[in-house]
UniProtKB/TrEMBL annotation, chains A, B:
InterPro entries: cNMP-bd_dom (IPR000595), cNMP-bd_dom_sf (IPR018490), RmlC-like_jellyroll (IPR014710). Gene3D superfamilies: Jelly Rolls. PROSITE patterns: CNMP_BINDING_3 (PS50042). This is CRP-like cAMP-binding protein. It comes from the Bacteria. Residues 16-120 form the Cyclic nucleotide-binding domain.
Length: 197, 197
DNA sequence: GAAAAAAAATGAACTAGTTTAAGACTTTTA
DNA sequence: TAAAAGTCTTAAACTAGTTCATTTTTTTTC
């Protein structure tokens, strides 16, 4: 069966961990909602309860919090083939501390909380899919939380460039600074230093 | 049915997310290995392939890496009712960068990789258990990786004390410094400052 | 329970990263 | 397409956290 591009992308993402029959694929796709966000528009704002978990089929978004001084701390950038959202807010139905803003015109597939619960009843294989997906995310967050504490800002920048070369060129230096955990001024210094090396 | 203390502890831990029949409980327990480690002994050393994922029934352990300069970076403390190990090494059968050392005489239940795989075949409910366990761990690592980058050392210390009051008193200040990501000297200063407040 | 080893405290000199401010460059918007 | 808004660069003064060295206190070991 032939699917549209965004559906092929999400089905391939899922096929990394589990095999679905045609019928299951169609059932799964029927549980998703298509969402478009313009550049600079918000997908989520602090105080909201997360209505969806998102899969990005096109574009780029940043997930961030604002601290007491109003300074942004970016926790992730999400591009095509990535999952994003606030899983704590989504699961516990409590207000999120996050903002999610499109840095490019973006297209997403969202699964609502009701459909997420339904999914496990209708296609129990998805327990395995999410078990493995969360396991992999966990592995990378464990690494990131250690790096955040044990590496210098310069090392974190070099590591980010090595790990996400496709993202570096799509985001501003200022946002990258917000992710690395330093000021834009210091980010500028690091970049000119690293480029000089 | 009456179980020994360590078995009751792990069964209660699992019962937070899934219900098992008596038969399933017995099957599950049969897949576990009992492990004891003396204070200062290693459960795992860098270069090993992780043979088990562990549940702690008694004691306290620290999980850490050594950087190029030989300085320890502690990624977690594990006490009774906690799960630990190196999930990346365990899953991918590749060498671990971690050391796991008992800071007290400790007792654990381990599940081997072969039995972990068997578990999902024999009791598919465990997909759900691990899906939720990994989801919860993910939520706390997401928070920790953000805090590691956006909070000051003093704030991280206060946060650790608030979140793990039962652990603070069981570990040395030096190890806590290795977890917070600062030198023992600076940890000492922070503690005397915070206590003075 | 004495001796040895490890942990904790303190202080002075140092470095990674911040703050503030100002000018140049780039992108967005009317 | 001009003006406004946002991003990037540079630099000087500052602060959070490190390093090194020494002393005191606590824990471990025989």
């Amino acid at each position: 069966m032939k699917y549209k591009e965004s559906h092929t992308l999400i089905l391939n993402n899922i096929a990394r961990f589990i095999d679905l029959t045609e019928l299951e694929k169609q059932k799964y796709l029927s549980l998703l909602t298509e969402i478009k966000v313009k550049k600079k528009a918000f997908l989520m704002q602090a105080g909201d309860v997360a209505k969806y978990e998102y899969f990005i089929t096109k574009g780029c978004l940043k997930v961030y919090t604002l601290d007491e001084d109003g300074a942004p701390h970016i926790s992730m950038f999400a591009v095509e083939d990535y999952w994003t959202g606030d899983i704590a807010s989504f699961m516990m139905k409590k207000p999120t501390p996050y903002f999610i803003k499109a840095t490019e015109h973006s297209e997403l597939l969202g699964i609502s909380r009701a459909n997420y619960d339904l999914l496990f009843q209708e296609i129990p294989k998805f327990e395995k899919f999410y078990r493995i997906l969360y396991q992999k995310s966990l592995i990378s967050y464990i690494q990131r939380s250690n790096h955040g504490i044990s590496l210098t800002a310069e090392e974190r920048y070099i590591e980010f460039k090595r790990k996400y070369p496709q993202i570096v060129n799509r985001i501003t230096q200022k946002d990258l600074a917000g992710y690395i955990g330093i000021t834009p001024e210091f980010m500028s210094k690091i970049i000119s230093k690293v480029n000089r090396m």
